[in-house]
Write a structure and sequence with these properties.
Keywords: Isomerase, Magnesium, Metal-binding, Phosphoprotein. The protein is α/β, with parallel strands linked by helices. The chain is built from 18 helices and 23 strands.
């Protein structure tokens, strides 16, 4: 605690403004627990950039932690691009303080002689990824905490290819930041270097989204599709309704109670389309309007939740894996019409559904797998410039169509799933029936995600201990099913338990464990890189001989997953 108190007292110096000093003093005198959590470590970059609770301290999002990041990135940019006019693009979402923090970040970049393109109002994260390349920037920043609770904010860093930071840039930038002291931050803006952007970039992004997300559905089919859309109080309201309209989808109902951007997210417990409760109002409107499809996006519009009608006409939520295989299969069919070449590939992550590998094998293309986070898919595109990326995603409700955006993109993905739904409806089918047909062809893949929230310094220790125990006491069975293979990405090693044969994992090191069971079930465990959680991902599969048997097969797989998870005693 002495070390923490010493760190906190540094924030009482003249380097920090009066309000920050007062807040720090208040914590020192009145709230030892909050003081400890605010200062026990430096806020770190995770799978989706840097996210944290807003407040004073080294483990919080504030003008000084973000200012230090920006000062470090400014220095790094000058070293990496010594003979270039440096340019960065900055966007922000609807969260509290996002606009003010974006301006502070712009000020620091400009103070370091770097040209800044700053969006004049909130915009979706995928538009920032697009803008980096469109405006020939070396770097981009978006102020967002994605779907985290209202007290959070965050800082995502993009490189010149439009993708988020990956090795070696991330470690090099972190080192640059850690070498700085807070008094080294230059907050004195050069206003002539800050240019506000809006409609021109919007138009370019809308045009590119429609080009990449629209295919063969007729105007009649599009207008016949009944869509309910909710932005969950986030940024997508600025673009998605307009994109749908221009693409020919005229029958769109917006959930008005959630249409106004609001960092409190007043109508939901969590603004996360992964959570069924978040789409409750949209589902109610869909039943009232007899809509065919519901789409909801998270606050920065990179994830989307989808609901469609099943064979009984009831609205059901698709999980992220189901949405991913539907959209990937559609893109592969479209590519097949044009013809495949040796360089075509789709992409996903090691904790997402193995059904993506089945799709790739069926169409004769490659499926590249990476760690969690779309930055790894963007890296694949950058590392293999002569190959054609068709599309791909991950289980956490993110998808990317082509490579014009190098991050998950709910704007273009919304168009794509509407295209699938419109075409299916015009052929007297449905999205749900398309999914069942995929299951009949490739087998039913049933997935489940368990997320355990462990907050604060004690929670971080608890997560670490859980993973340590899994490594020191390697499970040989989950339920009654034997483990045949264990992959430990922290040591880049896979082990066959029957033979003890070990092989090297080529994917970068990460704190992930994956167990492959003899019956084809897969169980993964990893700490979240953006939230105080440990996550367990389970996938089980079985053949589907007849569409009428789907409910029975699904029920059997749920029981198999229950049996496997009984090992953990949640």
């Amino acid at each position: 605690m002495e070390e923490i108190l010493s760190k906190a007292k540094n924030w009482l110096s003249d380097t920090f403004d009066t309000h920050t000093r007062q807040q720090t003093q208040h914590l020192i005198e009145n709230d030892a627990k909050e003081l400890k959590d605010s200062f026990y470590k430096n806020l770190a970059f995770g799978t989706g950039g840097m996210r944290g609770i807003m407040g004073v301290g080294t483990n919080r999002i504030n003008k000084y932690t973000l200012g230090k990041n920006t000062q470090g990135i400014s220095s790094y940019l000058k070293k990496q691009f010594p003979n270039e006019q440096l340019q960065v693009a900055i966007a922000y979402d609807c969260r509290h303080n996002s606009k003010e923090l974006a301006q502070i970040v712009a000020n620091v970049f400009s103070a370091n002689g770097i040209k800044v393109f700053l969006f004049s109002d909130l915009r979706p994260t995928p538009e920032l990824s697009f803008a980096v390349k469109h405006l020939n920037c070396q770097c981009g920043i978006v102020l967002t905490a994605s779907h985290n609770p209202p007290e959070y904010n965050g800082y995502k860093v993009y490189w010149k290819d439009g993708g988020q930071l990956v090795p070696p840039q991330d470690e090099e930038i972190i080192q640059e930041i850690e070498n700085l002291e807070y008094q080294h931050i230059n907050f004195e803006a050069k206003k002539e270097l800050i240019q506000f952007i809006d409609k021109d970039v919007d138009e370019a992004f809308i045009t590119a989204s429609i080009k990449n997300g629209s295919f063969n559905a007729s105007a009649e089919a599009k207008s016949a599709l009944k869509i309910v859309f909710t932005s969950l109080h986030g940024t997508s309201i600025t673009l998605i309704p307009e994109v749908l309209k221009r693409a020919g989808y005229t029958n769109v109902k917006v959930v008005e109670e959630q249409a106004e951007p609001n960092g409190d997210f007043p109508t939901v417990k969590s603004p996360n389309p992964e959570e069924p409760e978040a789409l409750k109002l949209a589902l109610e409107l869909a039943d009232k309007e007899q809509a065919d499809i519901v789409i909801g996006t998270d606050p920065d519009s990179d994830r989307l939740g989808i609901a469609v009608r099943n064979q009984e006409g009831k609205m059901i939520l698709l999980n992220g894996n189901q949405a991913m295989v539907l959209m990937t299969d559609f893109l592969l069919k479209e590519q097949k019409k044009k013809g495949f070449n040796d360089g075509n590939f789709i992409a996903s992550t090691i904790v997402s559904t193995p059904m993506m590998l089945q799709l790739a094998q069926y169409y004769g293309v490659e499926c590249k797998l990476g760690l969690t986070g779309f930055k790894w898919i963007a890296k694949m595109i950058k590392d293999f410039p002569n190959q054609n990326f068709i599309g791909g995603g991950e289980e956490s409700f993110g998808f990317m169509v082509g490579d014009f955006v190098r991050d998950k993109d709910a704007v273009t993905s919304t168009l794509l799933i509407c295209e699938i739904a419109a075409e299916a409806k015009s052929n007297k089918s449905s999205v749900y029936e398309q999914l069942l047909q995929l299951y009949k062809t490739h087998g039913v893949y049933q997935e489940r995600l368990i997320s355990l929230v462990k907050k604060g310094i004690e929670g971080a220790q608890e997560i670490e201990n859980m993973l340590k125990k899994l490594r020191s006491e390697t499970p040989t069975h989950f339920g009654e099913v034997a483990v045949k293979r264990v992959e430990d990405y922290q040591i880049s090693e896979a082990q066959e338990l029957l033979t003890n044969e070990k092989t090297i994992l080529e994917i970068p090191k990460s704190n992930v464990l994956i167990y492959h069971l003899e019956d084809g079930t897969q169980i993964a465990a990893r700490p979240s890189g953006t939230e105080p959680k440990i996550k367990f991902y389970v996938s089980a599969n079985a053949k589907l001989e007849d569409l009428q048997d789907y409910d029975k097969v699904k029920s059997d797989l749920d029981q198999k997953i229950d049996a496997a998870l009984s090992y953990f005693n949640f």
